[in-house]
């Protein structure tokens, strides 16, 4: 059996332990076409399931963004699923508008099941996760969960492909999360800010989820520290700290 990716080595997540209990509905898959774009009903199922679970995190989150569907991310996910490769896609195949980088969750199945049951399986990894500390055991898989509840990942696109030539699994499922979560650093095991739901977005709240994402990303990890010394008038910060400089009231 192929070993799982280690969460500390990659922002992507891959689990091999429960793959035969998963995912999508049979009528979404066309053996003659290989892959299929998800119908709107399934898109809504995926987005709503993620948002429902993001509202259920413990401790509660003050800055958790509400997710929405991204068609470009879905196309990228479909392209990779259709390749029928056991493993993660190159990062160059996970970019959407403005070069924004996306994270990736993968799962494989011998028979199709519902998306909701598989997404729930990812979320259930939280039983092995200690907020701010990481997995409760060194071998525990938690990366699917942390990507799912990464506060800043507010756009998602998913796809499924039928892979009849695959020896182990026939159904390949891919979800892309934008911007990517599971970023290495001090916040790796703190995928959101704990606090009262919508505590950081009281004027932009939908039942515990923030609706005011920042449209820009910081290229530098230390932008907040830099802004304590320099202003956004500095050209370097204008280019490398767009999120911090452009978004004063948005979640970023």
Automatic annotation (TrEMBL):
- Where would you find the membrane-spanning parts of this chain? none
Q: What are its GO cellular component terms?
A: extracellular region
* BP GO terms, sorted: defense response
Tell me the keywords, alphabetical order.
Answer: Calcium channel impairing toxin, Disulfide bond, Ion channel impairing toxin, Neurotoxin, Toxin
InterPro entries associated with the record: Allrgn_V5/Tpx1_CS (IPR018244), CAP_dom (IPR014044), CAP_sf (IPR035940), Crisp-like_dom (IPR042076), CRISP-related (IPR001283), Cysteine_rich_secretory (IPR013871), SCP_CRISP (IPR034117), ShKT_dom (IPR003582)
Q: Which SUPFAM superfamilies match?
A: Crisp domain-like, PR-1-like
S-S pairs? 223-241, 232-245
Q: Name one GO molecular function term.
A: calcium channel regulator activity
Pfam families the UniProt entry points to: CAP (PF00188), Crisp (PF08562)
**Residue limits of the ShKT domain?**
214-247
For this protein, the record's PANTHER family field holds: CYSTEINE-RICH SECRETORY PROTEIN-RELATED
Q: State the family named in the UniProt similarity comment for this chain.
A: Belongs to the CRISP family.
Its recorded name reads ShKT domain-containing protein
Organism field: Sphenodon punctatus (Tuatara)
């Amino acid at each position: 059996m192929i070993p799982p990716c280690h969460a500390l080595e990659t922002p992507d997540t891959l689990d091999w332990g429960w793959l035969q209990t998963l995912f999508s509905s049979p009528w979404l898959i066309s053996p003659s076409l290989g892959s299929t774009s998800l119908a709107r009903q399934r898109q809504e199922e995926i987005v709503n399931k993620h948002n429902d679970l993001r509202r259920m995190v413990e401790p509660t989150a003050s800055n958790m963004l509400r997710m929405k569907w991204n068609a470009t991310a879905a196309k990228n996910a479909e392209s990779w699923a259709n390749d029928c490769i056991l493993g993660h896609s190159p990062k160059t195949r996970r970019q959407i508008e403005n070069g924004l980088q996306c994270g990736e969750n993968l799962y494989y199945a011998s028979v199709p099941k519902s998306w909701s049951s598989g997404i729930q399986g990812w979320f259930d990894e939280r039983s092995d996760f200690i907020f701010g500390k990481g997995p409760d055991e060194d071998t525990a898989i938690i990366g699917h969960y942390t990507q799912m509840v990464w506060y800043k990942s507010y756009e998602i696109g998913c796809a499924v492909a039928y892979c009849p030539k695959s020896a182990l699994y026939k159904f390949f499922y891919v979800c892309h999360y934008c911007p990517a979560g599971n970023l290495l650093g001090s916040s790796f095991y703190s995928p959101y800010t704990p606090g009262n739901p919508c505590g950081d977005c009281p004027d932009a709240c939908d039942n515990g989820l923030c609706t005011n994402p920042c449209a820009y990303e910081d290229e530098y990890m230390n932008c907040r520290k830099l802004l304590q010394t320099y202003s956004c008038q500095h050209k370097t910060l204008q280019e490398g700290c767009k999120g911090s400089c452009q978004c004063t009231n948005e979640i970023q």
